[in-house]
Amino acid sequence: MEIKEVGNYGALPLLSLNHVSVLCRSVLDSMRFYEEILGFVLIKRPSSFKFNGAWLYNYGFGIHLLENPNYDEFDAPMIESRPINPKDNHISFQCTDVGLVISRLEDMGMKYVTALVEDEGIKVEQVFFHDPDGYMIELCNCENIPIVPISSSSCSFKSRGQSFKKTVSNKCGFMENVMMRTLSMDMMNFAF
């Protein structure tokens, strides 16, 4: 049997993030959190499932809740009482107004931690908090950071609002070309 290196294959035909699946102690509590705090909408899930759960959708992807009320502290991926650590595993959502998010979290009595990332004069605000099962959520204005591939110095992206060449350099690799085409289409969609 011949073993081929992963690098010999082209990129997989991925389109986007489809969903994130989350184990929870109470589907009802988690549904309320993802609906009221993050604005997800409950959607129909296949009736063939023989376990308690829920599917939610918004912002182009879904969150699948899978109930496991028998969590003990060794099974739980996160423990609610642990401190909010921005360097921990988390799901991040792009948002337009971090200040509004903070006000909403304060109104609801939720604990959170903020952070500020600065790079070459660009500032990104972040707010981190836990869902009912202790999973970390981040909301940020990360679109402020330009996407610049490290693999090719001759193939850089401009941040939104700056001029942009329609042609992609032949010096760019496959992924850089895909990213440039995607960015180009996104910019055309936002422009009109």
From TrEMBL:
Domain of life according to the entry: Eukaryota
CDD domains per the UniProt record, alphabetical: VOC_like (cd07245)
InterPro entries per UniProt: Glyas_Bleomycin-R_OHBP_Dase, Glyas_Fos-R_dOase_dom, VOC_core
Family matches, as Pfam families: Glyoxalase
Domain VOC: 16-142
Name assigned to this protein: VOC domain-containing protein
Biological source species: Trifolium subterraneum (Subterranean clover)
